Amino acid sequence: xxxxxxxxxLVQPGGSLRLSCTPSIFSLDYYGTGWFRQAPGKxxxxxxxxxxxxxxxxxxxxxxxRFTISRDDNKNTVYLQMDNLEPEDTAVYYCAxxxxxxxxxxxxxxxxGQGTQVTVYQ
Length: 122
Fold this sequence. Notes:
Layout: E1 3-6, E2 9-11, E3 17-23, E4 31-38, E5 45-50, E6 57-59, E7 67-72, E8 77-82, E9 91-99, E10 111-112, E11 116-120
Parallel strand pairs: 2-11
Antiparallel strand pairs: 1-3, 3-8, 4-5, 4-9, 5-6, 7-8, 9-10, 9-11
């Protein structure tokens, strides 16, 4: 079981990207999904989460007001819309899924993707 991220790339400061997270063979309907990122030399951080129902979303302070997480169960995809990107957002971005998760924190996600690179350059 695997998640596949897409949508990363190169963008200038102030630009936008939309990341997608799609599972390879299972349905995300019953999974809460988180987005993480890891920059070179830094620890991985969780930046956003959307609950199984989609009713709860959470954001790290570093991305609040600029990033938006959403899910489209018809397309079996979770998105991360990233606006007003900054050089500090440069990292590998990962999505992860956990069954019946309400984004309450302190969880070890069961399934992970391989990551997609986002580079914000001047």
